[in-house]
Structures are given as C-alpha cells and as structure tokens.
DNA sequence: TTAGGGTTCG
C-alpha cells in the first residue's frame, strides 16, 4: 500500500482554482438560509501572505445549519479543495461539501476541533495550526502594544459618558483609518496615524456595548491578554510597548486617591514606538483600571512618539483618559527653528519666581495695546518677571522687528504661576462676589477642579482645534519648557480674556501689516467714515498711488477700495508703495490646565478671524450679531466665575504656537475655532 | 442554485 503524499497548502495570496489553505478567521457572519437549498455562512480569512487588512472572503454552503462551523474571530480554519472564484473582481472562496470541499476548525480558545467530515487527518495540520496561531498571536501583540484613542461621535458620546475606568466594552463597527491631512487630503508623511472612530448612528451594528466582568467575552479577552503579555501579565501592564508598570492589584490597591507617582520614566524617541524595548518599571505605579491611574498618568513625564518616516503610532489623547503616551508636536515650518536666546521661559517653571497679584491682574488687563511705558517696573521688579515682549508676527523680518520696536508697540507678557489665593483675584470684574462667603466654597471647588483631570464629560469640548486631531496634547507646563518656536495642541480652560467686554469696538483695531502698529478705532470715527462722501474709488491696492497722483502729503488719506474704506499707514506708506492698514481682532486669553500653569495667549489677524468662526472684523463692525454670539460662547468658557458650576465650563481644545521676540517668548492661538 | 465584508469620513 503506497504512502499517502502530504497535502500541499498554498498561501491565501496564491490561492486559485481548487486548493488547500489555512487562514485565520477575521470575520464571520451568522448563517443565513438561501433561496436555494442551502444555508450560507460568509467568512473572511487572512494569513501572513496578505497585507494588513486584506482577506479572502469565503462562502460556506451546507444544507444543514448545524453542519456549518461555529466560528469566532481568531479561530484558524483549514480548507481542503476550496474553490477559488472571483466576485467583483476579487478572489472569493467557495466551500461546498457537495463539491468535495472539507474544512477543519482550530478554535482559538479550545483544543476541540470542528470538522466537516468525520474522517480527517491532522498530523501535518497541527504544525500548520501552530504556525497560524503564532502568526495570529503576533498580530495581536502588535496591536496590544499600544493604547489607542477612540473617537465617539454624536449619540455614542452619551454612552461614553456612562463609561467607568476599567470597564470592559465592546466597540461594534469600529472604523480604523489612516488619518489624512485635512489640507491635502493625503496621509501625513512624517507619521502615519491610525484613527479609530465610532461614527454616528447605529448602522452596521455600530455602537458601544458594556460587558460585565464575568461575561464569556471578557473572560476570553482576559485570557488572550494574558497569553499575549506573557507570564508577567498578572502584575504588569504594557504602556505604549515601552513601559511596564507594576500593578496595584486593582481591588487590593492600597494607594490613596490623589497620590501621585512621578517616577514613570520618560523615554525619548524611538523607544516609544519600539515594542518591548527598554522596559522601565515604576514601582508602585498604578495600572489602568485602578482608580489612581488617571492621576498617575497625568503627572507622568511624557514619552515622545516616534516621528520616523513610516512609523506607525496610535493617537493617544484624553478620550479614554490614558494620555501618558506621547507628545507629537507639529514642527513649525513657517518659523525658523532656533533656540531662544533668552532662556527665561525655558528654565522650567520651578525656577521661575511667583508672580505677584498685581502682576497677574495686569497680565489679564494689559491687553495687546498696553504701551511699554504704562507698565514699566524698576529693576528689582523686573528681575521677578519676564521682560516686556514686543508683538511681532512670526513672519516678520528683522527690519520689521526693528520698526516695531521703534514704534514702541510693545506689550506685556508675564509667565507666572500664581498661588491659589493669587489666582482667585484674577476675576477682577467679580472681585466682590469672589470674596463673599457664600461663593467661596463654590469658588474653591472650581479652583480644585481645574487642577484635576477632566472627567469624561468634561472632555467634550465646545471649542475644537481643527485639522490637528492626530497631534497629541501637551500640557501648558511642558510648553514652557520646550524650545521656541514650536506648535502645540493643548486642552486648557479659559481663565479670563481681555478685553473683557462685549463691545466689538473693543476687539477690533487697525493694524499696519508692515510696522505692526495697532490703533484703536472708535465707534464715532467709523460712523463718520460711513458718512464721508469725499472719497475716491479705485480698483486695486496697487493703483492707489496712481490714483492719488502727486498728492502724498497725507498718507492717512482714506479711499474707497472695492466698496470698502482703506486707510494707509502713515509710517510705512511711500510714494511707490502705499501700505493700507487692515482691521483685526485683538484679544488675549489666559489659559490654565491640570499642570498648574497659566499661559497668556494672544490672538489676532487671520487666527482671530478663524477663532470667531470666520466672521471678519469688517463684518462684525457692520453687524455684530454673530460676533455677540461668539463672545457669549467665550464668556461661557471662562473657568472662574463664581456663578458657574464646574460642569458648566468646557475646556478648549486649541493649538498654540510659540515664537521668539527680542524680549522673550510669546504665544499665539491658531487653528482654533470657537464652536 | 443559493449569495457574495462594506460603510461611515466630523
């Protein structure tokens, strides 16, 4: 009797005609009764030969429902004599016992095999199974080495609010896609970011399901996690693949709430993206699921996500409150990267002296138009705060900076960390009520809550940074320590803003784009201009000189340009080149976050217009209805208002860039919209 | 024969 030749298997990539294959079950649909004689089960399988996400769809037919395999994702299935056809120009497997096809299932969680026939061989298949399951495991390990953010939209956000730390959930129809640059529509070139999204609605079974700890799915998941993590899994958890933190034992954890571990090791680039490399153990640090996890991760030093070409990272933010993983900052390509000469800001907040109460009041009150002279200090005072900062846009040339200096168009920026009591006096408009006993407890509560991590409900932001969702957030404290210039994304609360009025004329000023002179405009001036009839009509800026002929005596001459009044800068305009001034919003905000820092940020020109939902200052002056709505929204975001419960105030998801000036570092908001 | 992992895109 001749020995049976071994069964030859082909990879799924090479599967064609009738062949024998192994595959890891990726998806399986419940069997359905066809209009014909059979039941149909649709599955997709994959193996190492296929790229991530690729699969072979297989249809398993059988007249008996019970005779179909019971599959779950992760099982390994072996097909003999699988017929490979095509459907929609894609290969498709067809398994019909009537055509001689047979299948054998190796369950991921059971040693018991399922087979379409009573007589089946398994000797060689065992090795194949081993290979397959190890491949499957490898894939699982790859995925498990990251903590990933998940974005919940619309109705799913309400479900998200009910989530509790350490709760097991099932995300149905989670959409994974490579994030694309909203400007170009193309994937980011420096860093490939996968975003995980539960889109709105419930089509395709989309949703979040809460699982009980003793449910079979959770038991299975725990078992898999244990397998993947190895024998250490009982007392360690993997953070970003580079850190292992000793468990606090969850239920048996003896750490007290609020106890903060600051020893979590900071890992510089590449390590964060290198799985299983350079593990660091932090004694006593909690693990996810423990009530102390949030505090611990919020206070830990950041890791830096790899920005190597083609490296793959998952975005980590506050969505699941595990934002310890990485800071991936946007490098400013508009501003030359250089170290700041004046290192006051970068010396770290601990080395900076506290600001005084009056300092801080003036930070808020000074505004962008504060003249240098009006806020000068003697030498002793100056040594305790940062020097004056002149407002220069990042695109300014040296000569422009010089011109700006000569115009004394300076402003005051104080980078400070006031104590709580000092902080309490920030709200100058409500100083009386702040001092009252009835409001004190609420006020103190607000103070305390602003130094803790946001609760899930709080991370729903009314304001959102646009187009930079893939950028991990940075704390304000870290911003102060980082080199200049740089861009950051932050989650912060609005402490106050200036001007603290609702009058659009307080927000809009004339700005010369050349010398950066800002000039307030009065309501009366504006109305007078409207009535002014003695204007000349020209068609473009370049034709202004021509229009004006030899009359250069008054460069503040106002002309009408495309039905709009134009005013020329008297300092910068020349015969050859008139420089019209432009209208801009000018405002300043003071932000704070859980890192216990306060950061004044400025806003003007296009960034300010964008912030106000694209309402141009010209339009706001004409009809300020929309602008008033925006200001109301802004007022609603002010953190420290005694009349507000903490939950009323939403943080701002905003983008900030830093830049050097001759006197220090300044910050501006960009790509942030007041929603 | 039957029916057929594809869609959401903030």
UniProtKB/TrEMBL annotation:
The keyword Cytoplasm does not apply. It comes from the Eukaryota. CDD domains: hPOT1_OB1_like. Residues 9-137 form the Telomeric single stranded DNA binding POT1/Cdc13 domain. Pfam families: POT1, POT1PC. Belongs to the telombin family. This is Protection of telomeres protein 1. It comes from Pomacea canaliculata (Golden apple snail).
């Amino acid at each position: 009797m001749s020995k049976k030749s071994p069964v030859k298997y082909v990879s799924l990539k090479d599967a064609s005609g009738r062949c024998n294959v192994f595959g890891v079950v990726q998806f399986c649909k419940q069997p359905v009764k066809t209009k014909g004689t059979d039941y149909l089960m649709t599955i997709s399988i994959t193996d190492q030969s296929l790229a991530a996400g690729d699969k072979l769809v297989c249809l398993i037919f059988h007249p008996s429902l019970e005779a179909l395999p019971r599959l779950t994702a992760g099982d390994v299935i072996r097909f003999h004599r699988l017929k490979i056809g095509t459907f929609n120009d894609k290969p498709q497997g067809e398994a019909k016992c009537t055509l001689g096809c047979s299948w054998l299932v190796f369950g991921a969680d059971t040693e018991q095999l399922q087979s379409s026939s009573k007589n089946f061989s398994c000797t060689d298949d065992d090795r194949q199974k081993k290979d397959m399951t190890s491949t499957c495991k490898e894939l699982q390990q790859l995925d498990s080495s990251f903590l990933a953010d998940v974005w919940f939209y619309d109705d799913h956000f309400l479900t998200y609010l009910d989530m509790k730390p350490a709760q097991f959930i099932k995300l149905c129809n989670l959409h994974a896609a490579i994030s694309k640059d909203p400007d170009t529509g193309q994937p980011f070139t420096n860093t490939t970011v996968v975003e995980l999204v539960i889109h709105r609605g419930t089509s395709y079974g989309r949703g979040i399901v809460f699982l009980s700890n003793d449910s079979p799915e959770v038991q299975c998941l725990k078992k898999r996690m244990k397998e993947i993590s190895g024998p250490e899994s009982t007392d360690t958890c993997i953070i970003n693949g580079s850190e292992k933190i000793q468990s606090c034992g969850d239920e048996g954890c003896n750490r007290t709430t609020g106890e903060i571990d600051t020893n979590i090791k900071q890992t510089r680039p590449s390590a964060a993206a290198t799985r299983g490399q350079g593990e660091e153990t932090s004694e006593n640090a909690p693990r996810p699921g423990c009530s102390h996890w949030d505090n611990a991760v919020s206070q830990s030093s950041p890791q830096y996500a790899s920005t190597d070409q083609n490296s793959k990272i998952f975005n980590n933010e506050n969505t699941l409150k595990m934002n310890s993983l990485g800071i991936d900052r946007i490098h400013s390509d508009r501003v030359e990267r250089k170290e700041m000469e004046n290192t006051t800001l970068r010396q770290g907040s601990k080395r900076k002296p506290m600001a005084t109460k009056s300092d801080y009041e003036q930070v808020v009150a000074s505004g962008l138009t504060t003249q240098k002279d009006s806020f000068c200090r003697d030498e002793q005072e100056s040594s305790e705060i940062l020097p004056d900062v002149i407002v220069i846009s990042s695109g300014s040339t040296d000569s422009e900076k010089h011109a700006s200096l000569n115009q004394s168009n300076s402003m005051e920026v104080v980078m400070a960390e006031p104590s709580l009591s000092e902080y309490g006096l920030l709200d100058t408009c409500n100083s009386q009520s702040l001092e009252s006993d009835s409001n004190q407890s609420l006020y103190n509560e607000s103070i305390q809550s602003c130094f803790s991590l946001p609760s899930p409900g709080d991370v729903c932001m009314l304001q959102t940074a646009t187009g930079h969702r893939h950028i991990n957030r940075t704390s304000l404290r870290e911003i102060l320590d980082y080199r200049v210039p740089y861009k950051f994304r932050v989650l912060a609360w609005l402490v106050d803003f200036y001007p603290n009025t609702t009058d659009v004329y307080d927000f809009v000023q004339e700005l010369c784009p050349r010398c950066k002179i800002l000039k307030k405009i009065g309501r009366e001036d504006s109305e007078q201009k409207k009535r002014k009839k003695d204007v000349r009509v020209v068609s473009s800026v370049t034709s202004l000189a021509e229009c004006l002929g030899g009359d250069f005596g008054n460069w503040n001459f106002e002309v009408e340009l495309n039905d709009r009044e134009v005013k020329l800068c008297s300092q910068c305009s020349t015969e050859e080149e008139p420089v019209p001034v432009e209208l801009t919003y000018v405002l300043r905000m003071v932000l704070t976050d859980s890192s216990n820092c306060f950061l004044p940020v400025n806003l003007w020109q296009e960034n300010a217009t964008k912030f106000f939902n694209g309402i141009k200052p010209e339009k706001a002056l004409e009809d300020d209805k929309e602008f008033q709505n925006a200001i109301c929204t802004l007022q609603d975001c002010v953190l420290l208002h005694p009349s507000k419960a903490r939950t009323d105030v939403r943080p701002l998801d905003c983008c900030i860039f830093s830049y050097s000036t001759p006197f220090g570092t300044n910050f501006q908001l960009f790509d942030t919209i007041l929603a």
